[in-house]
Each structure stands twice: as structure tokens, then as C-alpha cells.
Amino acid sequence: MNLEINELQNFYTNTLLGSFCSKNISTLIKKNEAFIVRENFNQENIIGYGYPIPYLNNLIKTNSNYLCLMPKNQGALNWPSKKNKTIMVEQTEWPLESEISDIAMIVHGLENCDNPSKLLEEAWRVLVPEGYLFIVVPNRTGFWARSDLTPFGFGRPYSISQLSKILVENKFKILNTSATLLMPPTKKKMLFNSFKFIDQITLKYASKVLGGVLVILAKKQIHIANTIKISDSIKAPLEIFDGLIKPKPTPQ
């Protein structure tokens, strides 16, 4: 079950939980920027997919080119309001040229995709060699994937090992794995304030297993094809099977 665009927008703009998510996840994204080599960041091309609007601003610099792709099963909206940079696309068919993006970000996208591997293939295609990919997904072992109070309770959550496996299979190298949102989600303001305080205290000590949301930074890998044939590497082939493959006649 996928959330519609108006539900996502309302969560981030009109709820305490949405503001809390935006702040905490943005903090992790900023910390992950330490792993990114940005030689000319004012001319970078940045692509977001899903509903990355609350987090794209952390990556966009003064003269960055950016575009937000939203899947048609979710819907799209105009963003930013003054000059729209959003287009609606098929989940795994982006109308973009290959190798044009320096950084890509997928938020509320991977867990709601019908074919996650195909989505990662498309992200890999549009990234330049050694380009960077941010993924924000609900953590299977956290509280937030078990509640439908937030968008992170919808779709398929991932454990760290599951997400690592699918990224490696699609030719990405993981640079950093982090987690946030340790408190259980709640709409009750009194409980929210208490949980928020506990979350801040335990953040330094809790394991990534307890975090409600995972933030992964990965890099596109280019694999060089092996052009050396096995037969070329065998200088003196053994002949132990020749009698079986090419049997020799024996005199009667």
C-alpha cells in the first residue's frame, strides 16, 4: 500500500512527528557529507526520487542543478513553488540520460517500489562513475516500521543486511550506514516530548538495530570486465583427462 502525495506532504508540514523526522534525518545526511568528495559542488547535478523534498535542501548548493522525480502511483506536486523542478515518472523508467547525476537520493521510494533491484539499476544508470547514492528507508527491526502513524510504516522495511545485499548486487559500494528515530512514534504531545528527550540521550549509545530509519550512503562502482581467458592463463595444461576425452586405441 502506497501513500499519496498529499498524505506525505501533510505529514512533513503539519505534524510534530514529521518535523522531528525531517530534523533528525537531515542531521544524519549532513554527517554523511563528510564521506563525499565534492570538488565543484556548485555545478553538481542532483536527483531525488520518491518524496525527498524535506532532505534535498541539505545537498543543494548555490548553483546546483536539481530535479525531483515522483512515481506516478504516489502522485506529484509543484516544487519549489517559484520554479517547478518536479516530474512524474514510472518507478523504474526515468526519462533521463545516462551518467548525468553526481548525487542521487531515494526517500519513500525503495520500500514502495514493485521492483527494488530495477529501481537501483536505474539510479546506477543515471549516476556518473563514482557518483553517490543516499537511501532513506524504514528499519525492519525498529519501532517505526510497525506503526502506520508515519510514512515509514508503509511498504517493505529493510534490515541493514538486506539493504547492504541489494546494494552490492546492483554494483554499489556502501560508504556509511547510520540510523535515527530511536523513540516509538506517537501523536500524543506529552508522550512525544518525553520520548524525544529519551531519544536524544540514547542516540550516542543505542545500536543501529533500534533505529526507526536507516540512512545509507553508497557509491556507484564500475566493474572492469575480465578479458583474460582461462585457457590463456594455463601455460602447461595437464593431460590427465586426455585418455577419457580422446581415448586412444590399444592393440589386440
Q: What does this molecule look like?
A:
With 252 residues, this protein is of the alpha/beta class. Helix content is 29%, strand content 21%. A seven-stranded mixed beta sheet has the order 3-2-1-4-5-7-6, with helices on both faces. Helix 1 packs across helix 2 (16-32). The longest helix is centred in the first third of the chain and has 17 residues, at 16-32. The protein is globular, with a radius of gyration of 23 Å. Residues 225-238 have low confidence and may be disordered.
What can be said about the biggest beta sheet?
7 strands, mixed
Instruction: Give the strand line-up of the largest sheet.
Output: 3-2-1-4-5-7-6
The helix content, as a percent range, equals 25-40%
Q: How many H/I helices?
A: 8
Q: End-to-end span in angstroms?
A: 78 Å
Strand content: 15-25%
Rounded Rg: 23 Å
State the domain count.
Answer: 1
Oligomer: single chain
The fold-level CATH name is Rossmann fold
* Low-pLDDT windows of residues: 225-238
How many strand segments?
7
CATH architecture classification name: 3-Layer(aba) Sandwich
Secondary structure layout:
Blueprint: H1 5-14, H2 16-32, E1 45-50, H3 53-56, E2 65-71, E3 86-89, E4 101-107, H4 116-126, E5 127-138, H5 160-169, E6 172-180, H6 189-202, E7 213-220, H7 230-233, H8 242-245
Helix pairs in contact: 1-2
